[in-house]
Amino acid sequence: MLRSSPGGHFYDLGDVTVVIPARDEAGVIGQTLAALKEQGGGLRVVLVDDGSTDGTGEAAGRVEGLDLTLLRNESLPPGWSGKLWALEQGVARVGTEYTVLLDADILLQPGVLGVLREKMRSEGIQFASLMASLRMENFWERLLMPAFVYFFKMLYPFALSNSPDRRFAAAAGGCIMLETRLLERIGGFAAIHGALIDDCTLAKKVKATGARTWIGLSRSVVSLRRYDTLADVWDMIARTAFTQLRYSAWLLALCTLLMLILFWLPAAGLFASDEGVTLAAAWAVLLMAGTYMPTLRFYGRSAAWGLLMPVIAGAYLAMTWSSALRYWRGERSRWKGRVYSSEDDTG
Q: Which terms are listed as keywords in the entry (predicted)?
């Protein structure tokens, strides 16, 4: 886990440029940019207003004390995702050794970028990402958001992703720092222009060049994104869940079977008439809850939430099936008014 700089250490960040794609983020962009002022001196920021209709660019322009370049993106070329097209335009303005790709809803605690850069330098890392601490203020966030990290780490084990093995790569797109030269080496964002899980796709491309990648958790990187209702969480998961399974019905069936065996079968066994089966099921439920404990502990949640894993897993499976049904009906994904068609599936 990476922490922000203790004692307010000052960093010279003249070799770092932050690129932020922003679409309808007026409510949070001021906080995001204000936090960047506390990172160190010399930091450059490029914000690409991706066709916002809520005054995002104007809100960003009101933040003083930053070396800020504002770009406006109105058009989206065929086959590109909006975020990646915005990033492609933003990185064209980067002339520093390091580039940070930062989501518009991510708040960085003071000194995070300096600490992350020093980690990269000292450990020979060329591409590093930090998974943000998610918002946990209402019931649905507390129930479902820790599991997002739990299932992500099941799909992309950090130990394997951080190993030299090029078959395994992962990244958390909220905050990525990389050596700028790597973008030119892979052909820029054009190399992944249609990707919806763009962070992991980018990590895979970079790692294929022989660069060392790293992913970690941090409480010093905070997501400001609100998920006030079940529908909010549902849409967030369903947007890319079937993409994670490479749009494969076979993988969806396998995922369903595994979820039944791992999370529902032990719970069902608690109601068996055979005492031995019930005892074995109880141990299985405790083991299942135990695997969730590190994630709950990270987010300061009670261990009791782990006993709800069958319910949580069932909800995530339903969201995954919802994602598949949307895809089969012609909708690959949607985000803030943009719909990506299944017929335009470019990866």
A: Membrane, Transferase, Transmembrane, Transmembrane helix
